[in-house]
Here is the input.
Amino acid sequence: MSVFCPKCGREYDITLFQYGRTIECACGSRVGREVKIRSLIVPDRPEELRFMVDVMLGRLARWLRVIGYDAAYQEGIDDGDLVRLAIDESRILLTRDRTLPTEWWIDNYLLIDSTRPMVQLRQVVNHYDLPWHERLFSRCTVCNEPLNPLSYEQASERVPVKVLEHASRFAGCPVCERVYWEGSHVDRMRKRLDETLLRWV
Ligand SMILES: [Zn+2]
Ligand SMILES: [Zn+2]
Here is the structure.
């Protein structure tokens, strides 16, 4: 199979365009094939959206996890792997790299405007109309893994006594085994989210 330059008609082999890679034709025009990220075209519910977060947006990835969203992030990943994972795993690509949507012909991405994590979060939440109250603190912010509830007994083996005195609800990450609990840190984050997201919806 072939792909033709829309401007000069030059013919290219289809294998050059894997995962939406585009190439610059001798005539100066960009040639590529549109790649739809599977199953994202009509997402049933916005809370089912999954994200692939570009390297410079690590703090955004963490905040998306805080509000319960599956946000994959890999330090130092190159553009090719980033796009490939987004497509293979049906994730929306979040990036600040304006050249990326040109060099890769992908259609499920959002260009992030701000350099400030909370403003970035607001852009994503507003753009996709994401519910963000229901699943706060349900996911490990380090591994992106959903947390499992822990009983007081289970938690007591894994957290300092001081924490047990003040916290009531506990959850654990099945991957890194971090234990999360309600406390002053969570209150501060919740306040920050309210300030960021409530005022603007
Ligand atoms: Zn051409
Ligand atoms: Zn974890």
